[in-house]
Structure formats: structure tokens, C-alpha cells
From TrEMBL:
Organism classification: Bacteria, Pseudomonadati, Thermodesulfobacteriota, Desulfuromonadia, Geobacterales
Domain of life: Bacteria
Protein name, per record: Uncharacterized protein
Recorded coiled-coil stretches: 32-82
Span of the signal peptide: 1-22
Provenance organism: Geomonas silvestris
Keywords: Coiled coil, Signal
Amino acid sequence: MKNSALFVIAALVVSSSVPVFANDKDECLLASKNCKAEVDSLQQKMKKLNGEIKKGNKVYSADELKKLNAKLKEANAMLDEMLKPGK
């Protein structure tokens, strides 16, 4: 009986801690979800992307990190394009 009770308690603790990790993700940056009318400058977006990428595998899967890195690369390319002389 004790083992069953411990198993149930352990399952509840594990299941209640999983959403905490999911909330650390910035779904707006990752998949354009839950963007509550966020309008960031290019520099702000790049700063946010860097911050999210630094969270690494603790928060994001390998595929999600690839997406964030691709978005950062795209933002850097946009900034480079805007800073070219003659524009």
C-alpha cells in the first residue's frame, strides 16, 4: 500500500513540474504563438532570441533551437541589409 501511495505522489509531482518548463519557452519567438500585440524593434527581437538560445536544451528541443538560430540569422541578415551604405 505504501508503494502505491508513493508512486501516486511521485506521479503527481512529476506531472505538475512539467508545465513549469513549458512556460519558460517564448512561443511568440518560436512559432509566432501567444504574441499579445508584441511589437519589438529588430534589436529587441535579436536580444530576446539570444536569451532564449542561451536557455539551451534545458528548455528547448534541438529542432526548436535550430528554429531560433535560423530566426536570429535572418534578423542579423536584415540588420546587415539595413546598414548597407546607399540604403
